[in-house]
Structures are given as structure tokens and as C-alpha cells.
Amino acid sequence: MLEIINLQKTFNPGTVNAKTALRGLNLTLDDGDFVTVIGGNGAGKSTLLNAISGVWKPDYGRIELDGVDITGMPEHKRAKFLGRVFQDPMKGTAPDMEIAENLAIASKRGLKRRLRWGVKISDRRQYKELLSSLELGLEDRLSTKVGLLSGGQRQAITLLMATLNRPKLLLLDEHTAALDPKTAAKVLELTDKIVSENNLTTLMITHNMHDAIKYGNRLIMMHEGNVVVDIRGEEKQKLTIEQLLQLFESSSGSKFTSDKVILSK
């Protein structure tokens, strides 16, 4: 479903602030893969997701999605087949619009726009059913402004919006990092449920080693702009945090030093 070939990206090239974020990265995802991505600060995790999303063009390399080269495709054109949830709960929704209106916008992504009622009665029935599956009591609050919701509720709605039209690829950029532990666990459970039920090909960045091991069928660790550890299947299921750290150190030749990740293990 996704193939990344020799991807390279340097910010501020030719200056004292030059920073190479991706160093010839290669990665292939099969249809239905749920891949968790972990690594320290500056490892290139978010740069990778931004390159896939089209936020910026790589200096070199190629990105193919479902057999189509999207390397030079503008960000707005990729939006119709990509879903993304950011770390900040304030992103991904329109706070001054109702829950139903936000879902209506998401449902029309990639479609031709016409002059008609934005939210029909049949739409409201569908949205109520979808929200009911979240088990957050939002099905009876369709007319509530999204800006009045908690961070966890907003992330749950953003997740629903990102997957409403079953994207070819779902990108989750530390989407529970800004939430309290209990809410984060709930959003991760919802994520796992939605991804599994829809067989969505997914890349999920996380700073939590326990979550990286628990969720998905595959785990990759990044270091200095490259993938240094790639584990999947039964080997991943049996993995411990200590073994993961040992794999990182033997593959990268250095110790894992991210306090944020170490403290969350």
C-alpha cells in the first residue's frame, strides 16, 4: 500500500542551522498493516509523516501510495485518500461548528461540492450511530459546538472524521500525547477498534514503548532519519521493553536517550 524509497530531507541546507531529518529512508507497508513508530527527538518520525502528507517535498527519493507516485503531488490533493490525526486536540476540527457539521465536512472529503443542505436528517441518523460506537455519550450532542468538548472527546471525533471515508492510509502523529493517561488509553482503544474493523493501513507515532508494543502488527524504531529496528508478527507480540531497547542499541550502535520515551515505559 505504501512504498518509500531512499527518502532524504535536509532543512536549512547550506546554513549553520542545517539539519538532516531523513537519510535515505526505505519503508514498505502492506495493505492492512498497523505500524507503530517510536524513536527519540529528532529521529525523523514527524518529518516522515509530513513528507507522506505533502507538507513538504523531499530533497530526494520517492513515495508511492497504492502504486501511484505521489512524491510531487500537492498536499490538498493527497487529502482525499489520507487521514491524519495530530497531537494537538485543537487541530483537525472546526471548533465553532457543531459536531454534526464537522462530520458532514469530513464525509464530503474528496467529493464534488454541490449547493444543498449541509446536514440532512439521514446524515444525522448516520452520525448518531457512529458516535454511539465511541461510547462517549456524544450521540445525543450533535448540535454541540466542538470547541466545548474535552481534549479526549475532540480527538475521538477527529479520529472518526479521519476514517469516515476509509482512507488508503491513516497517519496518527502522537495523537494521545496531550491527553491524560485514562483518556489516552480510551482513545487508543477506539483507534485499535476503528483500524481493525476497517482494516486500515496505519502509521502511528507514539512516545510510549508499552503502547508501541501492545498495538498494531508491526513496530519500527527510527534513529537519525532511518529505520533501525523493524519487528512484526509473533516476534512483536512476545517483545518486552528491555528487549526493544537492546535491539535499538545493537542496531543503531548507540544508547536510547529519549527521556520522554524512557519515562513512559
Secondary-structure-derived class: alpha/beta
Low-confidence stretches: none
Percent in helix: 25-40%
Level-2 CATH architecture of the largest domain: 3-Layer(aba) Sandwich
SSE ordering: EEEHEEHEHHHEHEHEEHHH
Number of helices: 10
Main CATH class of the largest domain? Alpha Beta
Strand order of the largest sheet: 6-7-8-3-9-10
CATH homologous superfamily (4th level) name of the largest domain: P-loop containing nucleotide triphosphate hydrolases
The largest β sheet comes out as:
6 strands, mixed
Cα-based radius of gyration, to the nearest Å: 19 Å
Number of domains: 2
What is the residue-averaged pLDDT? 88
- Work out the number of β strands: 10
The CATH topology of the largest domain comes to Rossmann fold
Approximately how much beta-strand content do the residues carry?
A: 15-25%
Q: What overall form do the CA principal axes indicate?
A: globular
Whole-Å distance between the termini? 31 Å
What does this structure look like?
It is a single chain. The chain folds into 2 domains: 29-56 and 68-81 and 168-265, Rossmann fold; 94-166, no CATH class. Helices cover 35% and strands 23% of the residues. The protein has helices at residues 45-53, 75-78, 99-107, 121-132, 151-163, 181-198, 209-214, 233-237, 241-252, 259-263; strands at 2-11, 19-29, 34-39, 60-65, 68-69, 82-85, 169-173, 202-205, 218-223, 226-232. The strands form 2 sheets. The chain has a 6-stranded mixed β-sheet with strand order 6-7-8-3-9-10, sandwiched between helices. Strands 2-1-4-5 form a 4-stranded antiparallel β-sheet, with helices on one face. 38% of the residues are buried.
